[in-house]
Write a sequence for this structure.
């Protein structure tokens, strides 16, 4: 069994604006320690997949930065997309790349921008999922044991146990539930039958290729034509036009939710998708006033804040439960419970043509 890592690094991370910008999306940010989220992802999976068996899918415009952040990777292992077409296209592009190298390749797919506390536990879980994927021909996921009724995550309903030697806790998946409302999330949590969808997947490259051909034939045929045209030396403009025509769907919605051959390995390691500024509260301990500070802050009668300001002092008086971010030429202030709306500010700036802030 030969395992290859595929790191998906094409996201824009608009919910981390203004620190995240078009030329410096979320995966390149250092939110904890000294390594970017992308570098930390590559570091934690290195015991499973050495650099020559690690592939990164990113935007064409970000290939140079990706190679600079991961100089240990062979340059040809950084695959650029002319335009983001969601994760189904990115996974399919990586699958075609790997199948050209190794028809028996097993793919482990990782988002570039997650934080996982226990790398050894992650690697063990991926190896278990790979064993199940190989033995049963399933599309495997890792499901995180939920700790609260989250509305920002998708959920996986755990089905019957899969009899797999050496993997005592692998199950079939009964169904996926998209990000639920608060009432539904509480009900799912109380049932004890659901896991959070981590976005980490393991499967044989040939199996996901077959699934894409079955459930997303237009996408799969378009990807095959795109790769063939690239090998024949078609111009960048023509290749970009081809890629823009691909359907834009997540691998979850496009394939996993439609397939009857999906399994899950429950995991219990610390995990966060670091989806917004509020997630800094999961990465750093609060001070005596409940404030989480990255950078410099002085407060009077201020509590429950998340402050990110590495280069400037932020001073507050009499405020509660706010996010305050100073990054470059922008200051962001919003209530903690509205941090998901930051992307709407980005869209408003884009509509105004204020590219200098994006």
């Amino acid at each position: 069994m030969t395992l290859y890592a595929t790191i998906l690094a094409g996201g824009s991370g608009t919910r981390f604006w203004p620190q995240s910008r078009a030329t410096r999306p979320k995966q390149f940010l250092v939110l904890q320690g000294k390594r970017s989220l992308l570098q930390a992802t590559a570091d934690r999976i290195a015991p499973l997949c050495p650099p020559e068996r690690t592939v990164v899918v990113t935007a064409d415009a970000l290939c140079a930065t990706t190679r600079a952040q991961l100089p240990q990777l062979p340059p040809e292992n950084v695959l650029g997309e002319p335009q983001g077409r969601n994760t189904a296209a990115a996974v399919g592009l990586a699958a075609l790349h790997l199948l050209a190298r190794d028809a028996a390749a097993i793919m482990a797919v990782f988002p570039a921008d997650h934080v996982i506390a226990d790398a050894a536990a992650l690697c063990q879980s991926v190896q278990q999922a790979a064993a199940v994927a190989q033995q049963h021909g399933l599309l495997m996921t890792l499901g995180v044991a939920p700790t609260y009724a989250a509305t920002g995550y998708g959920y996986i309903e755990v089905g019957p146990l899969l009899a797999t030697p050496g993997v005592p806790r692998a199950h079939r998946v009964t169904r996926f539930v998209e990000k639920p409302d608060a009432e539904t999330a509480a009900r799912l949590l109380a049932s004890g039958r659901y896991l959070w969808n981590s976005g980490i997947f393991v499967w044989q490259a040939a199996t996901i290729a077959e699934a894409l051909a079955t459930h997303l034939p237009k996408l799969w045929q378009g990807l095959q034509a795109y790769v063939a045209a690239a090998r024949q030396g078609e111009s960048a403009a023509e290749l970009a036009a081809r890629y823009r025509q691909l359907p834009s769907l997540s691998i979850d919605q496009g394939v996993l939710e439609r397939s009857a051959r999906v399994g899950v390995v429950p995991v219990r390691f610390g995990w966060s998708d670091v989806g917004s500024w509020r997630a800094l509260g999961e990465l750093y301990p609060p001070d005596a006033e409940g404030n989480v500070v990255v950078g410099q802050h002085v407060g009077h009668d201020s509590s429950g804040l998340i402050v990110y300001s590495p280069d400037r002092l932020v001073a507050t008086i009499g405020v509660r439960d706010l996010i305050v971010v100073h990054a470059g030429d922008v200051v962001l202030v919003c209530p903690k419970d509205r941090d998901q709306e930051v992307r709407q500010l980005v869209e408003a700036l884009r509509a105004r043509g204020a590219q200098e802030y994006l």
